[in-house]
Amino acid sequence: MTRIDFYLLNSAQPATRLQYACRLAHKAWQKGHHVYLHCQDEAAAEQLDQLLWSFREEAFLPHALRGEEVDEPVVCGCGDDPGEHHDLLINLSDLTPGFFSRFARLAEIVVEQDVVRVPARERFRFYRERGYPLQSHQIRIAG
């Protein structure tokens, strides 16, 4: 059964959510995991793909956009097909991905902004009602 972690950031900035997604993906990759970053649409996936190149000067994170990857451990995408990925799903869309249960882990990153927080609460209820193991982590962002 998929383990689901909610990361609750003490920031209302949407950019903080993306930065944290990059940090989480980098940390998972360093531990040998494959990561699929599920975005709302193609424009968001492309924005995140660009951010992964520059989110940390000293860090390299091999990644690609869905459809362009050749065995890349980190992939940004949208839509209903995450390809061969099944390890860690980082959901950055407003909806529950229909394929989430094929992943070992799911990370939901939430900022203090109603446009993000309200749909995240609905997804939390959805997962809880279906018996998925849920963890919540309060993350303090400096600055």
Describe this structure in words.
This is DNA polymerase III subunit chi. InterPro entries: DNA_pol3_chi, PolIII_chi_sf. This protein has 143 residues and is α/β, with parallel strands linked by helices. The protein has one domain: Rossmann fold, CATH 3.40.50.10110. Helices cover 32% and strands 24% of the residues. It has three helices and seven strands; from the N terminus they run E-H-E-H-E-E-E-E-H-E. The chain has helices spanning 14-30, 42-54, 114-129; strands spanning 3-9, 35-38, 63-65, 74-77, 88-91, 105-110, 134-139. Strands 3-4-2-5-6-1-7 form a seven-stranded parallel beta sheet, with helices on both faces. The longest helix has 17 residues, at 14-30. 31% of the residues are buried.
Q: What attributes does this structure have?
A:
143 residues; alpha/beta; Rossmann fold; seven-stranded parallel sheet; 24% strand; DNA_pol3_chi
Explain briefly what this protein structure is.
With 143 residues, the chain is an alpha/beta fold. It has helices at 14-30, 42-54, 114-129; strands at 3-9, 35-38, 63-65, 74-77, 88-91, 105-110, 134-139. It has one domain: 3-Layer(aba) Sandwich (Rossmann fold), CATH 3.40.50.10110.
The CATH architecture term is: 3-Layer(aba) Sandwich
Please give the largest β-sheet. 7 strands, parallel
Silhouette: globular
Within the CATH hierarchy, at the fold level, what is the topology?
Answer: Rossmann fold
Beta-strand fraction estimate: 15-25%
At the first level of CATH, the class is Alpha Beta
What is the rounded distance between the termini? 36 Å
- Number of distinct beta strands: 7
Number of domains: 1
Give the strand order of the largest sheet, numbering strands 1, 2, ... along the chain.
Answer: 3-4-2-5-6-1-7
InterPro entries: DNA_pol3_chi, PolIII_chi_sf
Pfam families: DNA_pol3_chi
Protein name: DNA polymerase III subunit chi
